[in-house]
Amino acid sequence: MRFVVALILSFALVWLCAKPLKKHPVPFYVGAVALVALYFWGVSANVRGEAWSYFQPLMQRCALAFLLFSVVMFVGVLGEKNPLRVHLMPIRRQLSILACIFACGHIVFYAASYIPRLTSAFSGNLAFSLGLAALITALMAVLWVTSAQRVKHAMKATSWKRIQRLAYPFYVLTYVHLALLLMPSALAGNSVAMLSIAVYSAVVGVYVVLRAAKALRDRAAEAAAPATELDLETAATV
Asked: Which of these, 28, 3, 31, 5, lies nearest to 93 by C-alpha position?
């Protein structure tokens, strides 16, 4: 249920707030920071309640951030004339920044829990999970910084595009990380964890299929382009 809530919130933000998010992104960023601050306050104050039981997992388990990252990634595999792409492409950068802000809540919460225990617990599966989390955080930081307009304009276009390709391993590794976090609970029979893994897997699986299909279409178009140009040149000389 909490992931349905996250999905509804994400869709409302993306679809209904697209124009104001494009024109005035700063208030949305401030609102995201405020939600992260609210989350930390609630955790420190040990808040309880029905509304909190929905809000806390969205922040702590990175569900809202992951869904926003998913929207950003899916926009890239839609066709050029697809209505969803036309509507969402102008706010792709802003959605990435919002997702990074929400992800910070997850990162800081778990970093505060595990960093003090690094010397005594850095081994086995925990070592792998923490190492993977560190790699994902580094990738997110690079993508976040290069999403800024000033940084983008200061870079060469080819260099910027090369760095943005890091979004592919970042997205897949984020899924792996979340699945590893949920796996112990899922194996223990926790229905929420099992449903969460199923939802994450379905979303990423569909994306991988669409991304592969787009890559094949792009490759076919590139292969056909020289032949088309040659045909035009031949026709012009006849």
From this structure: 28
pLDDT at residue 235 in the model? 43
Which single residue is written with the structure tokens 């930081």? 141
204-230 per-position pLDDT tens digit: 999 999 999 888 888 887 777 665 444
The structural domain count of the chain equals 1
Phi, psi of 104 (to 5 degrees): -60, -35
Closest listed residue to residue 18, CA positions, set 82, 72, 89 = 89
Half-sphere exposure of 209 (CA within 13 A, CB side): 6
Spatial distance between the Cα atoms of 63 and 46, rounded to a whole number of angstroms: 21
Taking residues 128-137, what's their average pLDDT?
Answer: 86
Q: Which residues of 203-233 are buried (b: 16+ CB within 10 A; e: fewer)?
A: bbeebeeebeeeeeeeeeeeeeeeeeeeeee
Q: Retrieve residue 146's tokens.
A: 């290069």
Separation CA 76–CA 92 (nearest Å)? 9
Residues 6+ apart with CB under 8 A from 21: 13, 28, 91, 94, 95
Q: Are 84 and 75 in contact (CB under 8 A)?
A: yes
Tokens of 22: 């494009």
Q: What is the pLDDT of residues 58-84, one digit of tens each?
A: 888 888 888 899 999 999 888 888 888
pTM: 0.84
Find the domain containing 131 and state its range: 2-237
